[in-house]
Amino acid sequence: MDSQHEGTAHAAPPPTSRSDTTLRVNGKPHTLTVDHRRVLLDLLREDLGLAGAKKGCDHGQCGACTVLVDGRRVNSCLLFAVALDGCEITTVEGLAGDGEELHPVQRAFLVRDAFQCGYCTPGQICSAVGVLAEAAAGHPSRVTDPRAPSGAPVPLGREEIRERMSGNLCRCGAYPRIAEAVEDVIP
Question: Are strands 88-90 and 66-69 parallel, antiparallel or unpaired?
Answer without folding.
Answer: antiparallel
